[in-house]
Structures are given as structure tokens and as C-alpha cells.
From TrEMBL:
Top EC class, one word: transferase
Organism ancestry: Eukaryota, Viridiplantae, Streptophyta, Embryophyta, Tracheophyta
Functional pathway: Glycan metabolism; pectin biosynthesis
Enzyme nomenclature, EC number: 2.4.1.-
Signal peptide per UniProt: 1-32
GO terms for cellular component: Golgi apparatus
Protein's organism: Cucumis melo var. makuwa
Chief location bin: membrane
MF terms (GO), sorted A to Z: glycosyltransferase activity
Protein name: Hexosyltransferase
The keyword Oxidoreductase is annotated on this UniProt entry: no
Family according to the record: Belongs to the glycosyltransferase 8 family.
């Protein structure tokens, strides 16, 4: 509840409105399909144009942060910044690209501001433009982080031809390569999309027990799982037979806790690539980076509470359509779907919940 104390007046008012809203309708879990992997199919040219004009020098510096007394572990004031191999760290991986830079920065800011031990969070940024490293250092001067170059060529030939060239985004696939990119001393990582904020301490998500499983994510077992794959997939046992002995459920790949040791030992990067190659010759699904994760992991996922991915807040393509939260507690708000809070706020047509995103925005003179 630490974060509650940090709420601004506007933020609290918005929260109260949400809590009191009489019609807290949930939307069908099937809507989870409108997640980030789909965004790049739906992304409008106008979004791209406006984000290209985003000036990376127009970001304000994040406010300073410091661990609470009870954080324990190494004292960073004596030893300098934590090394990446320090066992007390919480590891977070996020992509940084020009189009979603404002979202990634708000996500990082939200994690720091709601953590009891912000100095103990280590960020792993995946980029295809290494000049962003200086940008991170100037925006978050105290941050423990490392920037990793993700070569778009890694996936160029694996992205299905069904994807329109102009909208394809190789960084969207970088989450499949974390186990190889990050230092081998990093045994676990939380992968987060760039269109979300945390309103709770990320260490609670970090300490989720994955049990025997390699990844953890909130699961949506009421979603119609069959629609994530083509009729061709479901008509050929060589394909759908992969789910034999499993109870596959949809999960959103925008928030995942990954055991990197189990991932490396299991060769999951290659397993996901195997399905991506099959897709090129057989068209077994229509979407981008999500279905191969479902093929490899669905039904073999550690269940994480739904509060850690209140997804779908981006709404759908219909202009002006806004989404409510799912019933239940909220620790993470995810603007998956076509709308992004920064674009709606800029166009003076925000959805009510976008007011929860803006306190973390560091762009321009806002906030
Ligand atoms: C699930 O989706 C498939 C494919 O779109 C459809 O044929 C089937 O009727 C759906 N099932 C339910 C229960 O809605």
C-alpha cells in the first residue's frame, strides 16, 4: 500500500471514481487477443507519424529514489551501484524503441516510484538503436541498467510473410531471446511490455513461485483458445497434437516471469523458432509473436494473479471506446489494444483510466 501514499490528488480522485463506478463491467477474456502482439497490425500510420516527431530531448529527469531502511542487501551508498550479478536484485526486461519510448519511460518510472527498494531493481533494456543508452542515463541518472542490442536480422527471416512489411517490428520478438542476451548470472527476469504501469511493488511479482514451470503469467482459461490458430492447424494432428496431455489456456506475453535457467536448459528459444519456421510454410496462426509462445507453453504456465495484468485498456479500434478494469484488485495496468494513453492524452480525448498513466509520464512539461 506504499504506493497509495504517493498518490497525487488527481490520481486519488480518479481512483475513487473507478472504485465507485457502478457498472464495473468486465469484458470477455477473449478480448485478451487485443494485446501488444496485435498492436503492430493495428497501429495506425498517424500514430507512427506523431511518434516520429517525439523528441527524446524533451523528457524530464526522473525524480531521485532511494531504498527504504528495511531493504537489506548491499548498501549502494557504500559500494556504488549494484553489479548485475548481485543476488538481491529484481531483474526487469523492457524494449526501448522510438515509437514506444514514452510508454517505456513511464513504465520504468512507475516501477521505481512504487518500489520499497527501487535501488534494488536492475533494468535490462532491449534496443535496436544503441544511442538510446545515453537517453536512459540522462533520464534516470541513478538507474541500475544495461542496454542490449537486439539485431533485427535475428528474426527478419522468421517473421511470417503474412505480416505487412511496413508494420513489422522485430523488437516485438526480442522477448524470445532474453535467455541468450542477458548475463548468465541472471537467473530470472520479469519481461514487461512498454504500454503498462505498475501501481504496486514489483518485488511482489518477482517472488511469485514458478514451481516446476519455466514461465509464469496470468492465464485466461475462459478465452476461446482455438481462435488463436487457423483451421489448418486444428485439422492436422501433427500440429494440434502438440497440445496432447496439456490443458492449454490463453495468456498474455506482455507480462511474464521467466526462469532463465530452465529456459536455457530447455532450449525454448529454438522451440519457439521451430514453430515460427513452420508458420512460414504452413500458416498455422494469424498473429505475430504470441502464438509460438502459446504453442510451447500454454498449459505449462505458473499461474500469476490477474491483478498483475489488467490488460485491454488500450480499447479497440472504434474511436472513443474505453475499457474498464476487470473486477478485482489491480497491481499492473496494461494498455494493450490499439489505443495508447499518451496518444489519447495528447489528442485531448483521454479515456478515464488514462489519468492513472499520466502521473508517470516524463515527456514534455506534463505531469
Ligand atoms: C471458438 O472459436 C472457433 C474458431 O473461431 C469457433 O469455431 C468455435 O465455435 C468457438 N467456440 C466457442 C465455444 O465459442
Amino acid at each position: 500500500m506504499i504506493w497509495l501514499m504517493k498518490l497525487s490528488g488527481l490520481f486519488s480522485a480518479a481512483m475513487v471514481m473507478i472504485v465507485l463506478a457502478p457498472a464495473l463491467q468486465s469484458f470477455p477474456p477473449a478480448e485478451a487477443i487485443r494485446s501488444s502482439h496485435l498492436d503492430f497490425y493495428l497501429r495506425l500510420p498517424v500514430d507512427t507519424a506523431s511518434s516520429r516527431s517525439l523528441n527524446r530531448f524533451s523528457f524530464r529527469k526522473a525524480s531521485t529514489f532511494r531504498n527504504a531502511g528495511q531493504c537489506g542487501g548491499g548498501d549502494s551508498r557504500l559500494s556504488g551501484k549494484f553489479g548485475v550479478c548481485d543476488p538481491n536484485l529484481v531483474h526487469v526486461a523492457i524494449t526501448l524503441d522510438v515509437e514506444y519510448l514514452r510508454g517505456s519511460v513511464a513504465a520504468v518510472n512507475s516501477i521505481l516510484r512504487n518500489s520499497l527498494c527501487p535501488e534494488s531493481v536492475f533494468f535490462h533494456f532491449l534496443v535496436s538503436d544503441t544511442s538510446l543508452e545515453d537517453f536512459v542515463r540522462s533520464t534516470f541518472p541513478q538507474l541500475n541498467f544495461k542496454v542490449y542490442y537486439f539485431d533485427p536480422e535475428t528474426v527478419r527471416n522468421l517473421i511470417s510473410t503474412s505480416v505487412r512489411q511496413a508494420l513489422e517490428q522485430p523488437l516485438n520478438y526480442a522477448r524470445n531471446y532474453l535467455a541468450g542476451l542477458l548475463e548468465s548470472c541472471v537467473k530470472k527476469v520479469i519481461y514487461l511490455d512498454s504500454d503498462l504501469i505498475l501501481v504496486d511493488d514489483i518485488r511482489k511479482l518477482w517472488t511469485t513461485n514458478l514451481g516446476e514451470w519455466t514461465i509464469g503469467a496470468p492465464e485466461y482459461c475462459h478465452a476461446n483458445f482455438s481462435k488463436y490458430f487457423t483451421a489448418r492447424f486444428w485439422s492436422d494432428e501433427r500440429f494440434f497434437g502438440t497440445f496432447a496431455g496439456r490443458k492449454p489456456c490463453y495468456f498474455n506475453t506482455g507480462v511474464m516471469v521467466i526462469d532463465l535457467v530452465k529456459w536455457r536448459n530447455g532450449g525454448y528459444t529454438e522451440k519457439i523458432e521451430w514453430w515460427m519456421k513452420l508458420q512460414k510454410s504452413n500458416r498455422i496462426y494469424e498473429l505475430g509473436s504470441l502464438p509460438p509462445f502459446l504453442l510451447v507453453f500454454a498449459g505449462n504456465v505458473a499461474t500469476i494473479e490477474h491483478r498483475w495484468n489488467q490488460h485491454g485498456l488500450g480499447g479497440d479500434n472504434v474511436r472513443g471506446s474505453c475499457r474498464d478494469l476487470h473486477p478485482g484488485p489491480t497491481s499492473l495496468l496494461h494498455w494493450s489494444g490499439s489505443g495508447k494513453p499518451w496518444l489519447r492524452l495528447d489528442s485531448k480525448q483521454p479515456c478515464p483510466l488514462d489519468a492513472l498513466w499520466s502521473p508517470y509520464d516524463l515527456y514534455g512539461n506534463s505531469g
